[in-house]
Design a protein that fits this description.
single chain; mainly alpha
Length: 166
């Protein structure tokens, strides 16, 4: 029997939890004084996961929520947060891992993402769950797009890096 695709909120929240776990693993590497290349690999994984997640929300989830809830301000705030997140990601990708501020940049990103997730869960997800949106169908669409984005991780990294150099 085929496992059902999670609904849109469950899928996006699973991403939140996965990225939180990656940030925790990064903190452990810093505490253990892991070599810069090892920290860099994990930081890049975090950046790519955040980029994929933001794309899913911006391309599919936020437009659907905007239509369903008719609340532009709520979604404008969420999209603004993604803009700041993109800047942090670009800085991390453009900074050598042995830079004295590298770990601090990752820590700032972790704090920023944690605040954004908290706000999204409390303000967006709660309203979406109370709406009549077809979250199952949207979840299936998000899952397909997520797999497409995973197949072009290097292109996503290059796009993020290019925005740091622009």
């Amino acid at each position: 029997m085929k496992k059902p695709t999670p609904d849109a909120v469950d899928l996006l929240d699973a991403d939140h939890l996965a990225v939180h776990a990656l940030f925790e693993a990064y903190r452990e590497l810093v505490a253990m004084r892991a070599p810069a290349p090892q920290r860099r690999t994990l930081a890049e994984e975090i950046c790519i996961e955040l980029t994929i997640h933001a794309r899913l929300e911006e391309e599919l989830f936020y437009p659907a929520v905007r239509d369903a809830l008719n609340d532009d301000e709520l979604l404008d705030d969420a999209e603004d947060a993604h803009g700041s997140q993109r800047e942090f990601v670009a800085q991390i990708l453009a900074t050598p891992a042995d830079d004295e501020l590298y770990d601090a940049k990752v820590a700032v990103l972790a704090d920023y993402v944690a605040r954004h997730v908290r706000q999204e869960r409390e303000e967006v997800f709660n309203r979406v769950l109370a709406s009549r949106m077809d979250l199952q169908s949207l979840g299936r669409t998000l899952a397909v797009r997520k797999e497409e984005l995973r197949s072009v991780k290097e292109a996503l990294r290059e796009d993020a890096l290019a925005s740091a150099l622009a």
